[in-house]
Each structure stands twice: as C-alpha cells, then as structure tokens.
Amino acid sequence: LRALEISYNHITGTLPISVGNLSASLYELSAEGCRIRGTIPNEISNLSGLVRLNLYKNDLSGSILSTIKGLQKLQGLYVGYNKLRGSIPDDLSQLPNLSDLYLEANQLSGSLPACLWNISSLRYINLSSNKLFSRIPASFGNLKDLLAFRTFRSLVSLESLDLSRNNLSGLIPKSLDKLMYLKHFNVSYNKLHGEIPSGGPFKNFISQSFLPNEALCGTTQFGVRPCKTNFVDRLKTLRKVVIISVSSVISLVALVLMYVLLWIRCRKSKRPPIEIDLQPVVEHRRITYQEILEATKGFEESNLLGNGSFGSVYKGILSDGMVVAIKVFKLQQERALKSFHVECDTIRNVRHRNLIKIVTSCSNPEFKALILEYMPNVSLEKWLHSHSCALDITQRLDIMIDLACALDYLHHEYGLGGSVSTSCDVYSYEIILMETFTRKKLTDEMFEG
C-alpha cells in the first residue's frame, strides 16, 4: 500500500491504533473533511515512510504528538481546522524534510517556538486563528544570520507566512524584508505595533495583511497611519548635512582665496623683461677641474647628493670654504652634452629669488660641470614624506607661494596655467599643491579611483 485517500467521506469515530500497522512504505495518508474525532494515536509514528499527512477539517482534539518526530520523511503536515490544543512541540524541528506546515484554526496556545526557524526545508507556514502569543523573533528573517548560521538557512526559501488572528505583540522585524521569495504574509488581527517594513517583498503586500493592528504605522499602501519621524534622528541628520555643507563651502573658499593670493604674489614678484636685459653681466669665478676634484675629495661617494638622467650632483667645499653643489654631466650619455649647453644658456638669463643661483661652470672636452649654490635643507620631498621632518600649514603655504612664483617665472604655460608637460621635469602646479597639503604621493591609495 502506497497511498490511502479517504477524504470527504462520512466517516465517524476515531483513528484506530491499528493505523500504525499499515505498510511502512505508505507515503500518503489523507482523511480531509471527514468527522473523525478524538486524538491522533501515537502509533501513527510507525509509518516511517509517510511523506504527506492530511487530517484537515475534522474534529480532532488533544495535542500535536511529540512522537511525530519519528516521521523523518514527512514533507507536508496538514491538521488545520480541528480542535487541537496545547503548544506547538519543539519536536517538529526534528523533521528535516518538512516544507508545508498548516496548523491554522485550532486552539493552540503558547509562544511561537524558536525551533520552527531551524527547519531547513520549510516553505509554507500557516498558524492563523489560534491563541498564540509572543513577539515575532527578530532572528526570523535576518539573512545575515541565515548566511552565517546554517540553522536558519530555511527562511531564504520561505514563500508563505500566515500568523493572523493570534495575540502576537511587538514589532514586525525589519529583517523580514530580506526574504525575497515571500509571496504571502498575513499578521492581521494581532496586537503588533511600530513601523511596517517597506522593502523587499513588502512592496507587494496590501492592507489586508496588517489590519486591524491600530498601533502599526507605515506607507499608505498598508492602510495604516504614517509613522512619526523621530525628532532626535531628524536633528542628527540635519546636523550632518549642515556640517558637510559648511565644510565643503569653507574648503572651496579657502582654495579659491589661496589660489588668488598665489597669483597676486607671483604677479608682484615678477620682473619685467626689460629689467633683465639691463642687468649688468655678472663676472663668474673660474674653477678648474683640479679644484672640483679636491672640493669633492675625488668625487667621494659620501659627498654624492643624488643622480639624474644626465648627471650626478656632489657636495663640495671650495678652497675659500664656500659650500657648493656640483652637477657633473655624464658625457657618455647621448644627450648629456646638449643638456649641459641648454642649462648654461637658461641659467645665464634667469634672475629670480626663488631659483638656485649659478656660481660658475667648468668645461673642457672631457669634463662638464655646473657649480651651483648649495641648499642645506635638501629637497621638498624629504620634508613632506620624512617622519623626522615636519612642516606646519603656514610653512607649507609659504613654500607653495615661492614655488608658484618660480614656476610661473620659468614656465608660464606649465605653472599657474596648469598645462601638461611631457618634455621637461616640471610637475603641474595643482599636483604639487595637492601633494604638499595632503603629504601623500600620487601613488597613495587615497587617490585611487
């Protein structure tokens, strides 16, 4: 025997104990709409192969048996519209394949058992028209918990939940809006309060799912009063908006003012071209290769300040005690000689307080060098990115003003104009400005995206 279907017959009396003697391979027992009374016999748990038990719309009394846990293959339990009493047993959680649970229109009491949310295959739940009381557990629809703790993973596939006509109280958990497969939801005729979730499947629910819970609030589609916005929350939100807006305006104004100040300072400090032409020719001192060799102690590595594309820079002390920086060109490089002549022509014609002064040059067929004023404070990069050095905002602003003036003097198109250069070692001024005030290199992760 595989199935026993006796629904909607005029069968009276009770379920006999001998029902447990039916075939262990019986997968369906259906006696819906009969007049069977009495209790469900314990022996029914002997039907270990039972998949579907339908005792809907009878006069059954007593409680839901704890021995039902023996029906390990049970997928559908339909005992609605009877006179069952007591609480929903925790043993239901031991039915690993249960997907349909219909217990509506009985006289069940007690709280919603937490064990229900442990049933991994549960899809349809109808507990309406009973005497259940408690709060709807917040963990019920918490997908974070569902993903983290597999004991709750069942609710991901939940499609129907009917808890109407009970004495449930408290809030409708907002986490329920994450149950994306939920198609039917009914909590009407309870004592719930607070805001109805509006996201996820709740966008498709209507007022009949929530009436007449007068303490509920939400959007107009639910037929309830609007929720009052918390004054403190509104005040916090407004405060954040004001702070962000004011900060943005102040930052923008500060940048504009600083830019204007830099431009004015540079305009004032620039010399007209006619003044340069009228400057007397400066007499540069003569320095021999031997003097350079002695000043650098034979180009000792301890005096090396840095290396560039076409040369190396050494620190040197001349015979009169003057400290200088000596740029020695690598003549074996293809364009080193041209670079030497270009730099000589350029430096010969520039006069600006923010540019390193040229002391002299040393040139013969086998050796080319420029002798420059020594800057003891090393490079701006060291001051910006070294933990041992620190510049306050005023010092950084002064540096940027001087740098802007020098860039504008040398390269009108690359300085305050902001044009991009690929043919010389000149940064766009805005990039230098950003790196100086953030103390971060352009390769830093804060500039990504």
Automatic annotation (TrEMBL):
GO terms for molecular function: ATP binding; protein kinase activity. It holds the Pfam family PK_Tyr_Ser-Thr. Residues 299-449 form the Protein kinase domain. The keyword 4Fe-4S does not apply. SMART domains: LRR_TYP. One of its GO terms (cellular component) is membrane. The chain crosses the membrane at residues 241-264. Its main location: membrane. One of its GO terms (biological process) is defense response. InterPro entries: Kinase-like_dom_sf, Leu-rich_rpt, Leu-rich_rpt_typical-subtyp, LRR_dom_sf, Plant_receptor-like_S/T_kinase, Prot_kinase_dom, Protein_kinase_ATP_BS, Ser-Thr/Tyr_kinase_cat_dom. ATP binds at K338. Keywords: ATP-binding, Leucine-rich repeat, Membrane, Nucleotide-binding, Repeat, Transmembrane, Transmembrane helix. It is found in: Membrane. The keyword Transit peptide does not apply. It comes from the Eukaryota. This is Protein kinase domain-containing protein.
